[in-house]
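Per your request, structure below.
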């Protein structure tokens, strides 16, 4: 994506508000690959780093994969309203820190979320119009299974479990503003970039326009005298 898609597309004094891009899909449909490419090609995007109470794995670093917290610290932060959303998953808490996201949006940066439909729903409830939700579908169930097996990362049991969950995940597609069928990765990526470009130009993300229009109206009033 061109550097023209940064926070100040139209000029130094025309600073827009950032957006929260939420990508969801059944496992294997391609959202993680799309997210990875977007982070590699668009410097204005940052990945949201969740907080969690689970223990870090040996290869993980605090602040990179997750913000690792004790349960006591997590619950205290939750009580202070420091999370946009939170969930209890297999005995551990996960949450989206509020301040980092809100600071990024105010600075004109965009924040990427690679989450399921439940996470998308919670983020929309918390952040409203800041959220741009995109659901990624596979071209067929057979292709979805082929991709899962092609990754060679999971056992047959895990793949079968993911496939069994896919119908429930797909059923939530109507909750999203945009739906992409990922038949060919490069074309899907281009369509995602076009969505982002259009969303960045929306009036609600151009707070500087209030002053611009007020100045134009003042000029009109002066000429009418």
């Amino acid at each position: 994506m061109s550097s023209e898609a940064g926070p100040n597309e139209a000029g130094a004094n025309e600073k827009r508000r950032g957006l929260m891009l939420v990508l969801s899909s059944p496992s294997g449909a391609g959202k993680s690959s799309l997210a990875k490419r977007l982070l590699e090609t668009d410097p204005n995007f940052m990945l949201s780093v969740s907080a969690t109470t689970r223990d870090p794995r040996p290869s993980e670093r605090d602040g990179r994969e997750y913000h690792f917290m004790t349960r006591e610290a997590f619950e205290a932060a939750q009580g202070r309203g420091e999370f946009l959303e939170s969930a209890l998953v297999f005995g551990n808490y996960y949450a989206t820190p509020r301040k980092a996201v809100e600071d990024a949006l105010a600075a004109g940066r965009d924040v990427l979320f690679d989450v399921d439909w439940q996470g998308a729903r919670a983020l929309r409830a918390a952040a409203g119009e800041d959220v741009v939700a995109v659901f990624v579908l596979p071209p067929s169930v057979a292709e979805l299974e082929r991709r899962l097996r092609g990754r060679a990362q999971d056992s047959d049991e895990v793949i079968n479990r993911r496939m069994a969950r896919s119908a429930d995940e797909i059923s939530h597609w109507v909750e999203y503003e945009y739906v992409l069928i990922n038949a060919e990765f490069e074309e899907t990526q281009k369509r995602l970039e076009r969505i982002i470009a259009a969303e960045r130009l929306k009036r609600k993300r151009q707070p500087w326009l209030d002053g611009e229009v007020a100045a134009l109206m003042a000029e009109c009033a002066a000429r009418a005298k």
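The chain is about 45% helix and 20% strand.

Regards,
D.
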